[in-house]
């Protein structure tokens, strides 16, 4: 059995690439402001030798990562793009639900553990309710 392959496609669009370069350039400008410059001895990464957009993008490709918990990959709803219904049942499949942060339409600003526990608690209630009413 093969392990699932995950490909987040970071920097796969022109907008993503422009945003990455702009973010690094902004961080540099921020570090040079009077309130910050006394606290910044030197730029560690990507380093002052990395100047062109192409070089900055190459740095982003090699060192970029996310600290966020990706979510929203199994949209809840009833439209053509939704994966699960309001009771977390996968459209078109019987006996399968999605009970994790992927059903959330937007990423929460904090850790996803608390919201996922709440989703799981609600899912447990719905599963028990469905079992009680199924005969």
How would you describe this structure to a colleague?
The structure is a single chain. The protein has two domains: 14-63, no CATH class; 69-135, no CATH class. The longest helix has 21 residues, at 113-133. The two termini are 37 Å apart. It is elongated, with a radius of gyration of 22 Å. It contains four helices and no strands. The protein is 40% helix and 0% strand. With 135 residues, the chain is an all-alpha fold.
Distance between the termini: 37 Å
The total strand number stands at: 0
Kindly report the oligomeric state of this protein.
Answer: single chain
Q: Work out the strand percent.
A: under 5%
């Amino acid at each position: 059995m093969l392990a699932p392959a995950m490909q987040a496609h970071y920097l796969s669009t022109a907008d993503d690439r422009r945003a990455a370069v702009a973010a690094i350039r902004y961080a540099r400008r921020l570090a040079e402001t009077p309130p910050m410059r006394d606290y910044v001895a030197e730029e560690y990464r990507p380093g002052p030798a990395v100047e062109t957009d192409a070089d900055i993008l190459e740095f982003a490709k090699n060192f970029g990562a996310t600290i966020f918990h990706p979510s929203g990959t199994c949209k809840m709803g009833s439209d053509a793009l939704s994966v699960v219904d309001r009771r977390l049942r996968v459209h078109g499949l019987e006996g399968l639900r999605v009970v994790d942060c992927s059903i959330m339409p937007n990423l929460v600003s904090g850790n996803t553990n608390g919201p996922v526990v709440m989703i799981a608690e609600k899912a447990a209630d719905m599963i028990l309710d469905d079992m009680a009413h199924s005969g």
